Amino acid sequence: MRRLALAALVLSTICVTAGSATAASKSITVRDARGFARAVAAFRHSGGTIVLRPGGYPSLVVGPRSGGTLRVVGRRGVRVGGLRLARTQRVAISGLHIGPIGGDAVVWLDGAADIDLDHLTVSARGTAYRAFVFAEFARHVRIRHSVFTHCGDRSPDFANCITLNRGAHNVLIEDNRFRDCHGCDFIHGRFGSYLTIRRNNFDRALPCHHITRYRCGHNDLVQLFAGQWLRVERNHFGVYRAGGAQLYLTDDVDHATVVNNVFIGTDPALPGYRARMAIVVGANESKRLPYYAKIVSNTILTGYRRRDGYVGSIRMSSAYGGVRLWKRPIVANNIIGLLETSWRVWAASQRFVANVVLRGTNCAAEGYTGDADLDAAGRPHWDSAALDAANRYYAPPNDFTGRPRDGDPDIGAYEWRN
Fold first, then answer.
1. Average pLDDT along the chain, 418 residues, taken 10 residues at a time
2. CA of 373: how far to CAs of 260, 350, 352, 356, in Å?
3. Which of 58, 115, 164, 379 makes the best surface tag, with the fewest CB within 10 Å?
4. For residue 413, what are the contacts with CB-CB under 8 A and spacing of at least 6?
5. What is residue 408's predicted lDDT score, i.e. its pLDDT?
6. What's the CA gap between 298 and 294, in Å, rounded?
């Protein structure tokens, strides 16, 4: 019996040791690009975790693979100059600082699918290069909980923190912080279908210096030129300078829904400055205008006279006069800070309903114009004109905070609560 017990104990010890070795083999720590390539090869047909030791990694590549999710995890002190995900799938990247190492720093999604980019810091601050994410041909991409700042302040090339291509489908950009970028757009480009921009903070897209005026004069927070099924919801849009708008949609961006966002036209870091435009839909020089857009339940406090003389928070192309009515934008349940010339919105809309205009002229004859009794952040007080005044058909079920609206919904991004 003692021999049997001893044998069982030895066998049990062997099994535990073997199990520990198997678990440990699913995580590989690397210190350079060569070690990274070996680890990627080891996990080509299975899931696993690659941990990067502190240091610089000028260029990393993850190629075609199968199996479970490959996780690439950074520690403090890790800087990656380039990461290409080429014709690969099921890859999760987290905890990396994407910054220049002798050239532009880019996370390049090239034919990739099912990709998670989480808790990244993307910045080219203090260099003459760029740092950005480029979703070229990619599907089911999630970019979350990351910080994008100084994405190309001194680069002679056009800079964007996130650049999208028509080959990008099912992209989610959520819970990120975009701030302090000189001479760039935070999100820019064309996408294929189903782009969601949700719960992000956009603050201070500013002119750059010592480069050409053309290069430095294009600073929008979000500018998109093409794509089907866009949803922009529950974002905080801060100021820009020397650009077109906080949210600029033109050409064939179809089925865009802009809902429950807050647009702020001032910033304590830029005393005395007021952002001019919150939303632009369509450009007069474009060959094609966005169809089926909806601008619903936003609080839009941005608005100041543009250089061409236009005064308003929203502007739509006058070319919508030649577009069939049901293809034109719907504007409903918004608090609009400024609308001096209402025809540039009213005449271009399919419907303009239940909007409050703080300063200027309301397009609807029965529409409210004047002080709506809001606090500095745009939240309504108990006696606000926005309370219980929204059109129920267009009102979303939740507000900017994610909490449910009541049976008589309020105008704007916030639902009042006692």
1. 41 33 68 97 96 97 96 95 97 98 97 98 95 97 98 91 97 98 94 98 88 76 96 97 91 97 94 92 87 98 85 91 94 94 83 93 81 91 93 96 95 92
2. 19, 29, 22, 11
3. 58
4. 234, 260, 261, 262, 297, 298, 299, 335, 378, 399, 400
5. 94
6. 11
pTM of the model: 0.91
Rounded to whole angstroms, how far apart are CA atoms 140 and 116? 9
- The 8-class DSSP code of residue 211 comes to S
Per-domain residue ranges of the chain: 43-219, 262-418
**AA identity, residue 373:** D
CB atoms within 10 A of CB 289: 26
pLDDT, residue 25, reads 52
| CA dihedral (185, 281, 400, 140) positive or negative | negative
- 3-state DSSP assignment of residue 110: strand
Q: Contact at 8 Å (CB) between 374 and 391? A: no
Contact 40, 50 (CB under 8 A): yes
Tell me the C-alpha to C-alpha distance, in Å, between residue 11 and each of 3, 19, 25, 193, 287. Answer: 12, 12, 21, 56, 75
Cβ(193)–Cβ(167) below 8 Å:
no
| Residues 220, 234: Cα–Cα separation, whole Å | 18
Helix (H/G/I), strand (E/B), else coil: 393: coil
The owner of tokens 């079920």 is: 397
User: What is the distance in angstroms between the CA of the first residue and the CA of the last residue of the chain?
Assistant: 75
- Tens of pLDDT, residue by residue over 145-199, are 999 999 999 998 889 999 999 999 999 999 999 999 998 999 999 999 999 999 9
List, for residues 333-348, the tens digit of each pLDDT value.
999 999 987 777 888 9
- CB-based burial, 374-385: b 16+ in 10 Å, e otherwise: beeebbbeeebb
The helix (H) or strand (E) run that includes residue 215 is helix 213-216
Look at the block and give the residue holding tokens 């025809």.
343
Spatial separation of the C-alpha atoms in residues 88 and 72, rounded to whole Å: 14
What pLDDT, on the 0 to 100 scale, is given for residue 361?
87
